[in-house]
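Re: the pair you flagged

First of the two:
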Amino acid sequence: RKSGDSIYYGQYDSTGASITTNTGVTTGIKATASTYNYNKITWDSLKGATGYRVYRKTQGQSWTNMGSVTTTQFVDRTAQCGVKYYYTVRAYRTRDGVTYWGQYDKTGAQVTTNNPKVSGITAARTTFNGIKLTWNEVKGATKYIILKKNDNGSWTNIGNTTELSYVDTTPQCGTQYTYTVRACRIYGGKSYYGAINNPGVTIQSNHCTATLQSLERTAAGVDLSWKKVGGATGYMVYRKVSGGKLQKLATVSGLSYTDATVDSGVYYYTVRAYRKTSDGIYYGKYNASGTPIDTGYAIMGQSNVSVQQMINYFNSSGKQFPAWVYAQKGASNIAEFCQLVYNIAVSEGVKAEVVFAQICKETGFLQFGGDVSAEQCNFAGMGATGNGEPGCWFADVAAGILGQVRHLKLYASTDINQVPNDGADPRYYAGLLGKAPYVEWLSIPHNPYGTGWAAAESYGRDLISMIWKMRSM
């Protein structure tokens, strides 16, 4: 009591009354792994609280403030996949500009974030060297990372996509590769990666081999054709000789090529497909040994023309058959003459088209006019060495044809027993055996042994040209 300038105090209870304020501890905290890398935290409502602050930590680390909310749930969108986290919540109350903090559960609730792994990965070969990967969707993923295994066993990122498929266009043909796919979610400018699917999927890329369909000696040279390789930009054609190295002849976009530069002999051909992309040029596998072909026109073998084709070829010259000479020598007309050529050539294993082409060339389609006369029945200039030398005489058409055929056979055969020295060939010389198995080698300049039927450089080529014209009729 105050009286005047004095204040008078009453007695008081020195013991007083006691009370403990609320701790404000948030209870019922639960943490649940949600979509992709999301963790959802919930708790019980605390009466009088203005809001709640959420904290996170990993084992052995300090609590980190993750944010504040006024509700009783919080979604952590920044958790790393497959990591165990601890969460706690601290309530607070704001009054008259002052914040009062409650106590918190120092242990917290734990949860392991989802570690999404891409499943259903398949690999399939596509056009040329491409390999297409497909997989199942990972819910919540922003994109997918494509990984390819290196030789040392580690993974290399080769691309990414938001789709559920990806085509790798960089494999080398005929090579085995292992792939896997990893999910990725982007949030707040940061990437959150799912687990790697080990061991992934293994596949061998296409060999991309261009397979030869045909290899044929023609009038133009050697014709090649091959099967199409899907996705190929073009094809490279190679050739080699026995024991040599492959040499590139040409690069083409089609499925055929003619080698017009061949001479007589055995050549080996192969074709290699390639694909050109923005990443570079990718080459297919190929037959390094090559496919052989004897490019010389063999003198011996199965005949490739009929009697009628020989008749047609003679008639195309516009020349008249000298029946007034040969009617008495076994051939009244061109048909009988060609039949004799065919029968004798076939019986001796010599190609009829070679024999008849040589007859037409040497005699000017049976018109003669040089040192040799029609009456000699010498249809290939045998023994006619020039300077008025007429050469050999034969009794009739059949004998003249047989002498020519036997002499050709002597050049072409490698078996002396197949070419008897019985007088049919008046120019028989065993040293000629096997010296010209090809028509081209009948020309001395093109004969590797330095011998032959005629000295003209174009002799063999002229015969080949005549043969192909005959075969076309």
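Second of the two:
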Amino acid sequence: MGLVNMNLLNYLWETGIKPIKNAIAEKLDSSKAANNLLTTEEGFYLDARQGPEIMSMIEEQNSNLSELRGDLTAISKYKDINVTVPNGDIVGTTTVTGVNAILAVSIVYNTTFFSTSAIATVNSSNRVTVKRFEQTSAQTFTVRVVYI
């Protein structure tokens, strides 16, 4: 391996690094850097100095979500309901009464056939649907309903 001398360094600068630096400078016009979070005009890019401000906003949102999760945990309740999928069908439904709003549903267990795959969903009318992925004999699924 040869020695690195000033001529070689100058050659690398002039033919490699400098052209790349100039090409980047042409593409990123520093007058188009927006050092604020309000610029909406096309052709501007966000200045890196806004990073801490954006991070602060994200951390605040995460904190708010944590507080909300705690509040919902404190006020939410759950109950288990049975949803039967009839023989030869893949869908069974039932309406949950006595609740204001359902936050989540999940299948706790299948009381008749443990290897069947299924999902539980809910609509805005508190109607819980269980959909299984194959047609078999009638099955009853226990669904946990989290509500407020």
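Residues 51-75 form the longest helix (25 residues).

-B.
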